[in-house]
Amino acid sequence: MAEAKNVKKAGTKLSAAGLLLIAVGTIAVIAAVALFLFYNPDVLQNLLWILLIVIAAIVVIAIVVWIAMALLAIPMYAMRGEQYQENVDYSLDDVESVKEKDSAKEAEEEETADNGDDYPGRI
Q1: Please, which pLDDT band fits residue 89 given cuts at 50, 70 and 90?
Q2: What is the residue-wise DSSP string for 76-96?
């Protein structure tokens, strides 16, 4: 692999050692927590109960919010009413095909059409 001649490399040994230290520290913390929970099973059981209660609370809150949204939708629907058209007949015979257009040709026509305005997006 060819490299440019004016490229300098900086040493990354210090940051690599820091990453290695973080990885070893993370593994050590996980092992210490696992060992603590192994020798104190009551703590693990209490943590699982807390997790179960938190999950149940989240589910209950989600259900309450869903019910509130459903109940609020009823008066909104009642106030809005239903809209429909009268005396209209739709038939497949009335459907017309769309004429194909060449987008490149349209873009060229837009570029050549000059209305004297320097800012074509301005109204």
Answers
A1: confident
A2: HHHHH-----SS----GGG--
pLDDT mean across residues, the chain? 83
| Band of pLDDT at residue 108, cut at 50, 70 and 90 | low
Residue 23 one-letter amino acid:
A
* CA–CA distance, 106 with 19 (Å, rounded to integer): 57
Contact 76, 70 (CB under 8 A): no
The CA distance from 52 to 61, in Å, is 14
Please give the DSSP secondary-structure letter assigned to residue 116. S
Of 50, 30, 25, residue with least CA distance to 38: 30
Tokens at 122, concatenated: 């301005």
